[in-house]
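Quick one: structure for this chain?
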Amino acid sequence: MSTLTDIGAALFAAATLAAPAPAAQAPHADGRQPPAIKNAEFLEQLAATRGFSLGNPGSVRLTPTGDAVLFLRASGPRSFVSDLWVYDVASGAERVLLTADQILRGQEEVLTPEELARRERARTASARGIASYSLSRDGRTLLVPLSGRLFVVDITDRAAPRTRELPQADGGFPIDPGLSPDARKVASVRGGNLYVQDVASGAQAAITSGATGHVTFGAAEFVAQEEMGRLDGYWFTADSRSILYQRTDTAGLETFTIADPANPGRPAQTWPYPRAGRANADVRLFVAPADGGTPQGSHVEVLWDRARFPYLARVDTSENAPVTILVQDRAQTEQLLLRVDLATGATTTLVRETDPAWLVLSGVRWLRDGSGFLWMTQQDATGDDGWRLELRNPDGSLASVIVAGDQHLAGVEGLTHTGDAVLVSRSPDAIGDQLWLYPIRARSAPRAITDTAARTSHGVTLSRESGVWLHSTPGPDGAPTWTLRRGLTPDAPALGALRSVAEACPILPEPRFTTVSVDGRSLNAVVLRPRDFDPALRYPVINSVYAGPTTTVVNAPARAHLRNQWLADQGFIVVAIDARGTPGRGRAWERAVKGDLIAVPLAEQAAATLALCDAFPQMDRQRIGVTGWSFGGYFSVMAALRRPDVFRAAVAGAPVIDWRDYDTHYTERYMGLPEQNQAGYDAASALTYANDLRVPLLLVHGTADDNVYMINSLRMADALFRAGRPFEFLPLSGFTHAVGEPAAVVRLQSRTVGFFKEHLGEPAPR
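Got it. Here's what it folds into:
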């Protein structure tokens, strides 16, 4: 058993979070005064408003006919409690449908550890009040869960919606409640079993029984939620007559324990965790009547070669289409799209794909009439390096290629209400994106829906039965906007806009986008200077880094750089760089990190940072620091250990230290199995280089982190201690993988600034 309960009290006494009063910092032990922190109130504001997003519309859905927009919005710019709202397109009026206060009536909201863990996977752990809702296919019924209770809202008459609570049912707290397409049933997971509840009568029936400590039904396993982007573990069929559910057995997994040393009387939490090279959860899929009550032994098991393809990555139950599943082998180099026979459980292969490095997960999107499906792939027979969007026949055979070999294709946004065209996002420079409309069967040319000359970002919500759509994009002040339009044309008229009650941001970052050449490759970069920049000074440099797969940091929206602008205003020039291994630049670019997650990013980030110093004479190449979180934290540790010639100080947040201690699906995708790539794992492990630390290093880690467990930083601290290398360690008591509490954010960022000022210094004359 792996446990975090053996942490010594002295370790936690090394650094604690204090009250948020950065202006009154105590002097150092040697009498030196700590560096002054500029505009600390902005940092508190940034955290208290969750990046100025509280009060923005969220979880936006259009009714099928496009006559109304449903959304969640907090009651104020610093409230984490969201209510459910509706916007009437014809009148332009908005009204609240249901509030958390109406339901709770002054009582505290109740969240179980399981629900909190699920929200952690969904990155909504801080959300309170109405955090989610389901909309029926006809747009007339809503399901709203809150504090373990379930509410059904009839919005047929939106001027007078009718809300009623479903009777409290046995089995425990409902997890992941969902509405059937016909709005007659509600499914949820209670106590590890799957239940359905009749909306009209409130009667509950069990779909499964027999859940134990390691066997659950209807809930997605950890790697599905965290790494595959699949949060669900059950699916109603389109006709609402059947329900598919996964059975998960974690008996072979290690049990990780998270305890709170600051509160030793509080019970520890335990979670099954699949470390790289070790056992995964055993996942099976079954079909049952959606009314419940049938013997579990009569449920039909969906059959595929689970020994060869253990990962259930996608389940699709689209209307007018067969049920399909996407399964992957453990190496993620082969996947099958399978059609499911619900009566027998037999499966038929529609698409088979292989990749010698790894396959990027996508999914199937069926046409509305079931006459075919869209498929995004990097398997281009012509050898092109980009993505391809295909139209395939119902039997999986290729019908046509809609988008051929496009490195800039970023994703499918949706089908038009007529079903004859598909809206996609493209990112020609891998910084901003554009919206393009491609005909599916016609031979007409694609057309841009948004301005191709503007470097910005776009979000889209389409209505299913009308030409109304919602377009979100940053406004002139960087704040997001939500505009309703009719017709997918560049000059589509505006029908109205959703309102935000978010706090106004007092600053607008000034990112300077550029490119640098490293070994003949052009890398995207962004530079942020202090807003009181003095060209006569030479500034210390901070590389604000992520550098890992799936994520870019050189992004168009100005507000994406708010924290880095604040950091620059403290007297630094802050840079961010996207080297190879990041998405959006083609298959070979992304897969350059196969077998070793650090060698290529470290070499290219170091070279690019020095190249930026050459291009901007105010950047001091002798005073470069690096900081990041999660993969960025890992990179920062490795930069300090392996490239002290470039990076002279590092602050590393929640770092993976040895990839053998991270989860299977993410790690093995890039590194392979440890037993098959021992040299690669050793080369990518920070523990290998503990003796080599020569520059100041600050490790930061939340003690309750259930994504990158604190075992990582503890192992690094132990290795450095035994090697006799000095370092600093800041454990964040009770925090998970994210730090959002305003007081903690202020203290953490102030500590980071102080660390860099101590070791890199202040701006100095050139």
